[in-house]
């Protein structure tokens, strides 16, 4: 049951990110359907699902599998971060989302990065303190994820309900008589 809910959450995440990146029209895409932005956001969208499926399919029971599993762990940290930065920069650069909200994905990435780095630093500098904070550390990660995901979702909903400025009439032919 837990695996099913995890997969369902990953599919919903992927669907939401892909809808935002592709949009219903070019104007509705947060990356203006530019290839780099769409590709980077597709990787961000599909990566959690990929990680879940790999985790379900591979177990590190065999000592010979430890090295590839360690490589996968490092990739699971590095790949989403790299493509998350690419996606956030593409959203900021395309300016489809009005300023300053076009920087919101970069803010969210910063919050999530801090929520991940702080526990790592505590573990390295004070392992005993880290061990004592057994329930606080996962809560910090969950809070960082929920705050940024819900925050970006609220910003997206509010901005989508704003009326678009009317286009400027450049040339109008003479009226019919």
What does this entry look like structurally?
With 177 residues, the protein is mostly helical. The protein contains six helices and no strands. The chain has two domains: 96 residues; 79 residues. The radius of gyration is 21 Å and the shape is elongated. The relative contact order is 0.08. The model has no long low-confidence stretch (mean pLDDT 81).
Short description:
The chain has six helices and no strands.
Main attributes?
single chain; 177 residues; mainly alpha; 6 helices; 71% helix; elongated
Strand content: under 5%
* Radius of gyration, CA atoms, in whole angstroms: 21 Å
**How many angstroms does the end-to-end distance come to?**
72 Å
Quaternary state reads single chain
List strands and helices in order, with pairings.
Blueprint: H1 2-22, H2 35-57, H3 66-94, H4 104-125, H5 127-132, H6 136-160
């Amino acid at each position: 049951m837990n695996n099913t809910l995890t997969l369902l959450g990953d599919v919903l995440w992927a669907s939401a990110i892909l809808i935002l990146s592709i949009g219903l029209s070019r104007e509705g895409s947060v990356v203006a359907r530019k290839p780099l932005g769409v590709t980077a956001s597709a990787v961000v969208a599909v990566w959690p699902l990929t990680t879940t499926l790999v985790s379900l399919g591979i177990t590190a029971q065999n000592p010979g599998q430890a090295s590839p599993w360690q490589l996968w762990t490092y990739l699971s940290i590095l790949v989403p971060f790299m493509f998350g930065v690419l996606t956030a920069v593409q959203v900021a650069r395309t300016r489809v989302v009005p300023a300053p909200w076009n920087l919101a994905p970069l803010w969210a990435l910063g919050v999530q990065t801090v929520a991940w780095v702080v526990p790592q630093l505590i573990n390295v500098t004070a392992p005993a303190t880290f061990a004592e904070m057994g329930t606080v550390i996962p809560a910090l990660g969950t809070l960082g994820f929920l705050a940024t995901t819900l925050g970006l979702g609220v910003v997206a909903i509010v901005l989508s309900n704003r009326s678009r400025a009317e286009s400027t009439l450049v040339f109008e032919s003479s009226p019919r008589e």
